[in-house]
Amino acid sequence: MSPPVIKAKKRKNDSECRVFKSSWTLDFFVVKHNEYLLCLICQEKIAVFKEYNIKRHYSTKDADTFDTLTSQVRIDRVNLLKDSINSQQSFFKADKLSSETATISAF
């Protein structure tokens, strides 16, 4: 007879009460989008709201290009990247809406 199998409980990131800090946007070029973090530079999702994870992502993938930017230039670049993301999202939302309208009118 084999010993009983004990399953470890899975930790849920949602139950850890992690919150987005607005300083991360300027420091690491990330914004909160729905339920995850979005890197403004490479547009990758970062699932865990931990500064260590965000810092690691930034330092391994994007720091060599954007660490040289300081003060107002950095702020301007963040705003430009945010606008770019917003325009991409609005483009796809508008396209989805027009396709739904065409489907409805076809019936």
UniProtKB/TrEMBL annotation:
Q: What is this protein called?
A: General transcription factor II-I repeat domain-containing protein 2A-like
Q: Which organism is it from?
A: Oopsacas minuta
Q: Name the InterPro entries on file.
A: SPIN-DOC_Znf-C2H2
Q: Which Pfam families match?
A: zf-C2H2_12
Domain SPIN-DOC-like zinc-finger span(s) in chain numbering: 22-66
